[in-house]
């Protein structure tokens, strides 16, 4: 009995299986495996058996039992009681990012903000959900512009939780242009983590993320990152790659090192929402992949040779998928799709969507992925209907282009993106696969070619 997907590399073949195992074997052994596994070398046969690619007929029952345990362990998130619950206190903003996906408003009109009625309904919604562990993530616009709403929510949730005893965490996604002493006290008191954006050097960041209220958004960000750290709050940061900073990856990494960050998320543009209209920031996907690879090679070199400690988050997530027998926990990257079950977002008007991308689709005037509204007492019922649709269409094994792919055991289904390409964006922007296959191949190439020192670094990143 044998069971595997495969991909040819320059001097070997990569084997993978749905239990999440992988193995590199020589071209000669792969030819023998396909023809007659008994002719493989003894060492290769031992490896194939130990990684569940091969078993003797007499051991099939035991093999299947262990294989099923490994598979179910990888997919245990389907029974997970955790939820990433994003909420938008306001769509007002004090920044004018060139790639903004949201219809962010620069004034403080009341319709930009979540009303008190909806805030109260949101707090009740938190405890109407079945999840035991909930991370509430404040998004915008710029959520700190309504820090009063954020403070009200965390205080109200803490009060209600005396009855329900859920595990509640918080994070705010903020440009960190403004940080008051009061806000710092609340962030510390309620252990609200900070996620921010740093797109490169001062010149690049200020051009990507300009603000009419601050002479330099870079200077304001760096100042407040240091202020947060002095108060024992340690912001994480991501970079959004645009046409402006695409070819400045080493400069971006150096900027993160200079500012003492421990992680960087090199994020490609998403052509959702309002950013879909700004063609000047876009680039070809193959150009992003090339830039990303160069960035990773440079980052690995700096870690190994210059005694710095900076990891790239996307690469780390993929390493975790490959190295760990357990689920990686990243809700956006699951198969079957976990959107609407482990992840959802509530807009300022109370509308609920299964992901931030589906919210962006609503910004384009299409409400197909709306799951309900927290002010509606039937919200949980309508959410379940849409969640069932996502699950029904959210399995890679049902996608023709994915079912035989060697990377499918580690990859993720995204029915929302598939629907978006088919109904709105079109294939001229990207295929459903997009950058994923190339990124997985790159990660496996790095693992295949790594010496012990580099493998140790990769395992540290995977365990971070």
H and E order: EEEHHHEHEHEHEHHEHEHEHEEHEHHHH
**What proportion of the residues is helical, as a percent range?**
40-55%
Strand order of the largest sheet: 10-9-8-7-6-5-4-11-12-13
Q: State the total count of DSSP E strands.
A: 13
* Average pLDDT score: 92
Shape estimate = globular
Textual characterization of the structure:
By secondary structure, the protein is α/β, with parallel strands linked by helices. The protein is 42% helix and 13% strand. The protein contains 16 helices and 13 strands. It has helices spanning 27-35, 42-50, 60-74, 116-128, 147-164, 181-189, 202-208, 217-230, 249-258, 285-305, 313-323, 356-363, 379-392, 415-425, 436-449, 452-463; strands spanning 5-8, 12-16, 22-26, 82-87, 133-138, 167-173, 192-197, 236-240, 263-267, 311-312, 343-346, 351-353, 372-373. The strands form two sheets. It has a ten-stranded mixed beta sheet with strand order 10-9-8-7-6-5-4-11-12-13. A hairpin with a 5-residue loop joins strand 2 (12-16) and strand 3. Helix 4 (116-128) runs parallel beside helix 5 (147-164) and helix 11 (313-323) crosses helix 16. The relative contact order is 0.11. The mean pLDDT is 92.
């Amino acid at each position: 009995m044998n069971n595997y997907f495969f991909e040819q590399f320059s001097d070997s073949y990569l084997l993978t299986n749905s239990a999440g195992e992988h193995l590199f074997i020589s071209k000669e052994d792969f030819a023998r495996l396909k023809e007659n596994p008994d002719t493989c070398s003894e060492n290769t046969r031992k490896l194939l058996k130990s990684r569940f690619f091969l078993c003797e007929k007499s051991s099939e029952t035991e093999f299947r039992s262990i294989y099923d345990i490994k598979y179910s362990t990888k997919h245990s998130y389907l029974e997970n009681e955790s939820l990433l619950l994003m909420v938008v206190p306001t769509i007002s903003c004090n920044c004018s990012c060139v790639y903004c996906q949201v219809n962010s408003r620069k004034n403080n009109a009341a319709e930009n903000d979540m009303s008190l009625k909806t805030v109260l309904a949101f707090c009740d919604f938190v405890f109407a959900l079945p999840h035991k562990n909930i991370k509430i993530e404040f998004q915008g616009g710029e959520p700190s512009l309504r820090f009063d709403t954020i403070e009200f929510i965390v205080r109200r949730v803490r009060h209600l939780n005396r009855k329900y005893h859920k595990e509640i965490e918080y994070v705010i996604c903020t440009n960190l242009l403004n940080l008051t002493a009061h806000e710092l006290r609340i962030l510390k008191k309620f252990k609200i983590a900070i996620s921010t954006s740093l797109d490169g050097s001062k010149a690049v960041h200020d051009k990507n993320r300009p603000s009419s209220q601050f002479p330099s958004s870079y200077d304001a960000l760096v100042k407040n990152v240091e202020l947060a750290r002095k108060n024992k709050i340690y912001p994480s940061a991501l970079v959004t790659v645009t046409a402006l900073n695409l070819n400045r990856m080493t400069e971006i990494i150096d900027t993160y090192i200079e500012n003492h960050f421990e992680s960087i998320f090199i994020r490609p543009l998403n052509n959702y929402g309002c950013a879909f209209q700004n063609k000047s920031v876009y680039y070809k996907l193959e150009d992003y992949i090339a830039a990303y690879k160069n960035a990773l090679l440079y980052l690995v070199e700096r870690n190994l040779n210059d005694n710095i400690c900076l990891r790239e988050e996307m690469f780390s997530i993929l390493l975790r998928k490959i190295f760990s027998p357990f689920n990686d926990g990243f809700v956006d990257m699951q198969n079957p799709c976990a959107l609407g079950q482990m992840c959802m977002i509530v807009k300022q008007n109370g509308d609920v969507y299964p992901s931030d991308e589906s919210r962006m689709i609503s910004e384009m005037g299409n409400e197909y992925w709306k799951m309900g509204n927290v002010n509606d007492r039937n919200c949980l019922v309508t959410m379940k209907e849409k969640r069932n649709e996502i699950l029904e269409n959210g399995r890679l094994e049902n996608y023709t282009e994915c079912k035989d792919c060697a990377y499918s055991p580690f990859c993720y289904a995204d029915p929302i993106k598939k629907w978006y390409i088919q109904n709105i964006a079109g294939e001229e922007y990207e295929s459903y696969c997009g950058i994923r296959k190339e990124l997985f191949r790159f990660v496996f190439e790095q693992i295949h070619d790594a010496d012990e020192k580099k493998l140790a670094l990769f395992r540290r990143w995977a365990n971070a």
